[in-house]
Design brief:
The chain has 23 helices and 13 strands. Helix 17 crosses helix 21.
Length: about 600
């Protein structure tokens, strides 16, 4: 008890207290958060303890430790209430098996909005089609004690400036035989944590002097070392293979010559690089990661989702050259919406091919290197620790950004407009978000959360537009990839797709072949639809009030934005460190306003 009291002398602002207690107890206290979740350890009740540990501050009491900790808690409440005017203690307990009713016990006359909010949010938790959760509020003076006596008497705690709420939880994530539904429990935990945080925020907003601005800030404010370990290990697995390189055929130039010599018929057989990894071994490593033991629901979600994506990619590497690869591709990159296909067709039907564009190339790789190094200097002015470089090499045939570095084929040529577009696409988006991601506590923000490609490419194409560098043929290519993907989904073969792009939509043979060959690599690969798809989704996001800059904090999908914002509110993630040059263009604001209004994509050139 003396040790616990000594800890209370160190409740400095912006700090935290971590303390082991007797009988397997533990205190984790964020000094800037005016609430504490308490759980009294019971046998065979691990799930309730895990629900308690989703909070920013929690106390796990070992068996028979109530008397030991009683005075300490009163002193803690007194100290915290002195700072925040009031302090909330929420105790979690499990109800009997088979119950579907939450029991909320607290001073209703004092906290009607908080307790009503808690009941409303808890009743929103979805359990199953044939049942519904309910929540009953019981005034403290008439408390239900079927699960034991309360930890405090409300009137006694009130003298110290504290408020005590007791929440009894129906264990709907267990069968009547007391067996757990593990997948459902993870879903329940996420919804429960959100409901509890929303109601606690109502208490903080009304009853305390805390400056916390959102319930998003009430989750965990520290990345546990086990999460950091999982982050590093899953990133290492992801970086142990190059998915796009391994699904790209190594004999495509020979196939192209043969296809053109045969009058655009008989593509031949794709050949691929040998796999430098064993997908089964990597999968075994993936599923040895204890992702489901992460107590922060938001972080558990993004790593579980990323594991599934890597699992799918590894399966696809084993399926190269088969029809199953195509089916897995559909699962990974999803279908093509009616709206997306319509936008692509409008572009192709209303914008003619610029047949002379390829004849205007007036810059080589070394000219482009100078532009790229100038752009990197612009980044270094914002972040002196920016270290990316430009590499000109003879052993590559496409421009790419890998690990934040730019790689150029030595024979690469382009127009000045294409160069401006590539600078903002490759560097102003891909290299920039990689760097911003490396400055986050989680490596996955640099290497990409699950499904990040569509938003990345959508931002990159928008960057070309905002930099006044989106060309006619470039936009047509993005649209052509969508109609090619639609044809693939409808069962077209190589010759059918090439003919459609060449004859129906007027693409030059070289560009029609490039689009078709990319669509059939691996056995049917839909990744190329994400460019226009991402641009369309980004337009809708901005039209609905979203802003561009927060999307540059790393590599993630639009569906992750709420989580990224929540983690930023909690101080676990940071705003973008560097920003792209095109945001400084005089025309940027006006063009962005037009785009936000839902302008047809065909009007971007």
């Amino acid at each position: 008890m003396k040790l616990a009291s000594q800890q209370l002398q160190k409740l400095e602002p912006h700090g935290r207290t971590e303390m082991k207690l007797p009988n397997n107890g533990f205190l984790f206290l964020e000094h800037d958060v005016p609430y504490l979740i308490v759980y009294r350890r019971k046998t065979k009740d691990r799930q309730t303890m895990r629900l308690a540990k989703t909070g920013a501050s929690f106390l796990i009491l070992g068996k028979d430790d109530e008397d030991y900790m009683h005075d300490f808690l009163l002193e803690l409440v007194d100290r915290m209430a002195e700072r925040f005017r009031s302090f909330l203690v929420v105790e979690l307990e499990k109800r009997d098996l088979g119950s579907t009713e939450f029991i909320i016990s607290g001073p209703y006359k004092k906290l009607p909005s908080t307790l009503d909010q808690l009941a409303k949010e808890l009743e929103k938790i979805d359990i199953r089609y044939d049942a519904k959760l309910t929540a009953t509020i019981v005034d403290s003076s008439a408390e239900n004690t079927e699960n034991g006596s309360p930890l405090f008497e409300e009137s006694f705690l009130r003298v110290k400036g504290g408020t005590y709420v007791r929440l009894q939880i129906p264990p709907v994530y267990r069968t009547l035989e007391n067996k757990e539904f593990p997948v459902f429990f993870r879903k329940f935990r996420t919804q429960f944590a959100k409901a509890l945080q929303q109601s606690i925020y109502e208490f903080i907003r009304v009853q305390t002097t805390s400056k916390i601005a959102s319930y998003h800030a009430l989750g965990k404010r520290r990345i546990h070392e086990e999460v950091s370990k999982i982050d590093k290990e899953i990133t290492a697995i992801q970086n142990s293979y190059s998915f796009l390189l391994l699904v790209a055929p190594i004999n495509i130039e020979n196939l192209k010559r043969s296809y053109f010599n045969n009058g655009f018929k008989n593509i031949g057989t794709y050949h691929y690089r040998l796999l430098p990894i064993d997908p089964d071994i990597l999968k075994r490593k993936l599923y040895q990661l204890d992702i489901h033991e992460i107590d922060d629901p938001a972080l558990a979600y993004i790593y579980d989702e990323k594991r599934e994506e890597i699992d799918q990619e590894l399966t696809m590497l084993k399926e190269r050259g088969s029809k199953n690869f195509f089916y897995s591709s559909v699962r990974l990159y999803q279908d093509i919406s009616t709206q997306l296909l319509k936008e692509a067709q409008l572009i192709l039907n209303n914008i003619a091919e610029d047949d002379l564009a390829s004849e205007k190339t007036d810059m080589d790789a070394y000219d482009f290197q100078k532009l790229a190094e100038n752009e990197f200097d612009f980044f270094r002015k914002q972040a002196p620790d920016f270290r990316s470089k430009v590499h000109i090499r003879d052993d590559i045939n496409i421009m790419m950004v890998a690990g934040g570095e730019l790689y150029l084929p030595s024979g690469y040529r382009m127009t000045k407009m294409e160069a401006r577009a590539l600078i903002q696409h490759e560097l102003g988006t891909h290299a920039l978000t990689y760097f911003n991601g490396t400055r986050q506590p989680l490596q996955q923000l640099a290497h990409g959360l699950a499904g990040y490609d569509a938003l990345q490419e959508g931002i990159a194409v928008l960057a070309e537009y905002l930099a006044d560098a989106l060309g006619v043929n470039r936009l047509r290519t993005l649209a052509g990839r969508v109609v090619a993907g639609d044809a693939l989904l409808k069962g077209a073969n190589f010759d059918d797709m090439f003919s459609m792009l060449y004859k129906e939509y007027g693409f030059a043979p070289q560009r029609a072949f490039d689009m078709t060959s990319r669509m059939f690599q691996g056995g049917g690969f839909l990744k190329d639809i994400v460019y226009l798809k991402g641009l369309l989704e980004l337009r809708d996001h901005l039209a609905n009030g979203g802003t561009l800059e927060p999307l540059l904090a790393g590599k993630f999908a639009l569906r992750h934005l709420t989580i990224v914002q929540e983690l930023t509110h909690r101080g676990l993630l940071h705003p973008p460190k560097i920003k792209p040059r095109y945001l400084l263009n005089a025309s940027c604001d006006q063009k962005l306003r037009q785009f936000k209004k839902g302008m047809p994509l065909q009007n971007m050139v």
